[in-house]
Amino acid sequence: MDLKLRGKFAVVNGASQGIGFAIAHTLASEGAEVLISARKLEPLEAAAERLRAETGGTIRTVVGDIRTADSIANILAAVDAQGGVDILVNNDGAPPIGEAIEFDDARWMRAVEQNLMSVVRMVRGVAPGMKRRGGGSIVNIAALSALQPIPKFGLSVATWAGVLGLAKTLSLELARDNIRINTLCPGLVQTPRLDVVNAAESPEFQEMVAAIPLGRVGLPEEIASVAAFLASPVASYVTGTTLAVDGGSNKSLA
Predict the structure, then answer these.
(1) What is the pLDDT, as a whole number, of residue 192?
(2) Contact (CB, 8 A) for 180 and 171
(3) Do 114 and 90 meet the contact criterion of CB atoms below 8 Å apart?
(4) Span 212-238, mean pLDDT?
(5) What distance in Å separates the CA atoms of residue 54 and residue 75, rounded to the nearest whole number?
(6) Which helix (H) or strand (E) holds 6?
(7) On the CB side of 57, how many CA atoms lie within 13 Å of its CA?
(8) How many whole angstroms separate alpha carbon 199 and alpha carbon 150?
(9) 59-63 and 87-90 as β-strands: parallel, antiparallel, unpaired?
(10) Cβ of 79: how many Cβ atoms within 10 Å?
(11) Chain-centre distance for alpha carbon 66
(12) Residue 253: which pLDDT band, with cuts at 50, 70 and 90?
């Protein structure tokens, strides 16, 4: 299927590895010009070189830590220098794991900055340009835990739940400008973070994998395919949606 992304300009944050890299790869393979950001220059440039080599696409880079307003301002300046953006993918890592009541105010505020305020600031920054371009698409990457909370993920669950509410509200407010916004909630996906959270050979991790109806961990490319579809004009009638991409793990009806 042609996703009709040729000539589109996309921004993907947290794109030096994992799901962010896979999304940038898919978008570039479909013909989009892609600006990628990450916190560290060396991994970012290495990712850009790999993307150029494997997709033949135009890949631009900007160093940015979406946990801070100043870094987001740098990303948005790079966007403005290109005349605006058609696609925004809000993606990053996740806050630390631990008992929710054990984290102090500073740690909670950092989680809010990372997961929620980064989306607020990025959308606020790109929306005017999207309006001028006749519309656009925003895809947020959260996690299945935002729909189906699990112990010790409280920082992520609480802040990504805020993203779900924000996205639904924005889908109503921005629809008149032809700006769509959707949120993906991946389940267990083979990324560097998964290696940190779960020892691959631990009995606990094996039990989690066994509980996935499809019987395996997902691949970043499988998340990227769904994200690229939602970002594309092919999904022009889809907005305000929260979608689990989890091998069937989500137990709810909605």
Answers:
(1) 76
(2) yes
(3) no
(4) 97
(5) 24
(6) none
(7) 28
(8) 17
(9) unpaired
(10) 22
(11) 12
(12) confident
